[in-house]
């Protein structure tokens, strides 16, 4: 295909509720970057942006939210990143569309990972929406919003103006969905057919939206990738009053209003200094949604709001998740099954191995027992209960497991984020997804399922086997790998045993997360 490009005064100009925006056309896709959807004072609810005169230049990505810590580049082969200028004026979005016409295409809105503290709409190379829009004939949107203490610090004890400061980042996401409702038709999208999707913290944000009354009616479907976070993001106890007063004391002020204008680096420094002690005592530390009248709480803990029952949901995770990032001392490629089983007995003890090995064989007969070391239960175990609760409300909950090994170190179990390129049709951007005879077929299976779900609320399509919706009694899991198949409750017994045995290892992984040693 010969490349095409157009950037001219009469090309890719769209009228929005706040003024005209101008993007560009590239290889049949019209692209808009950095469009502001809201603005806000620190700790306050988002407000509409002021209308502008002239035409807004939407050819550059907008600011991303300031981060508590600047990550040290590492693991880029596994999760290729991009870094970008940071500023609190970060409420902006990006759009990729096949055409700015009246076709009313499905709209997919990407919520980035990084928990509720880090990340951005452009952090991963695989977040590019061009191929999703091209091959799916859909409108793809990605958004930036406030994070960490800017987006999730409860100051409600200091006055009604801060009533929902503990969910300011969530309010930003809702504001972006309102902007999409009001404007996306001009970009070729259907405001009545919006799918929110995200991975890790982005998947958690899908759940947060389901639990937020103000988001009702703003999206039609949800897709949660590795976002049932269970104990990784336990809700805080109490309010933020004690923490905020400690921050004020550390900064030498008794006026909460000063926290609105103090330089971010100073504010973040005080918070980081105080957080470890508060966390050790089980007190409120922020950095995650705050349960109040605006947010009903994590569905894992309190169940789903009945108002969201009609919304179709795809939910799944990855075989190795964080475990696959950890150093691995064994040569999987040249290890016999007997040798793998011996390592498991040595690692977990004879008694535990006797329980685990038959269950692992039944769940993953294609795998060497050595892979039990990398099997995730941090996400998968709470996910089973999440799907059980969700499917009890409807007949439109679908479960999956990404199980494809990657050609790294002679074969590495799939890790957290490794499925993202397949979802966006972006395996061409990530070397680790180059699997001869597998990549193209698996990408089609995953991508076509996502697009079918975005169109109809049902992911079934000719590229995959018949995939029934789950019920509380029967979790119908689409296992995605070189031999994609559907199995029922296939790992429930294994997870029930493995979760308890892995408690100590899970604590180590949580510590790695706190110390910033895990990619997102």
Description:
With 520 residues, the protein is of the alpha/beta class. The chain folds into 3 domains: 205 residues, Alpha/Beta hydrolase fold, catalytic domain (Rossmann fold, 3-Layer(aba) Sandwich), CATH 3.40.50; 40 residues, no CATH class; 199 residues, 3-Layer(aba) Sandwich (Rossmann fold). Helix content is 29%, strand content 15%. It has 14 helices and 15 strands. The strands form 2 sheets. Strands 1-4-5-7-9-8-10-11-12-13-14-15 form a 12-stranded mixed beta sheet, with helices on both faces. Strands 2-3-6 form a 3-stranded mixed beta sheet, with no helix packed on it. A hairpin with a 2-residue loop joins strand 2 and strand 3. Helix 8 packs across helix 9. The radius of gyration is 23 Å and the shape is globular.
Brief description of this entry?
The protein has 520 residues and is α/β, with parallel strands linked by helices. 29% of the residues lie in helices and 15% in strands. Helix 4 links the parallel strand 10 and strand 11.
Strand content: 15-25%
CATH superfamily of the largest domain: Alpha/Beta hydrolase fold, catalytic domain
Number of beta-strand segments: 15
- Order of SSEs, N→C? EEEEEEEEHEHHEHEHHHEHHHEHHEEHH
The order of strands across the largest sheet is: 1-4-5-7-9-8-10-11-12-13-14-15
Name of the CATH first level of the largest domain: Alpha Beta
CATH architecture of the largest domain: 3-Layer(aba) Sandwich
Low-confidence stretches: none
CATH topology of the largest domain: Rossmann fold
Our count of domains comes out at 3
Shape: globular
Please tell me how large the radius of gyration is.
Answer: 23 Å
Helix content: 25-40%
Largest sheet: 12 strands, mixed
Q: What is the terminal-to-terminal distance?
A: 34 Å
Annotation field: number of helices: 14
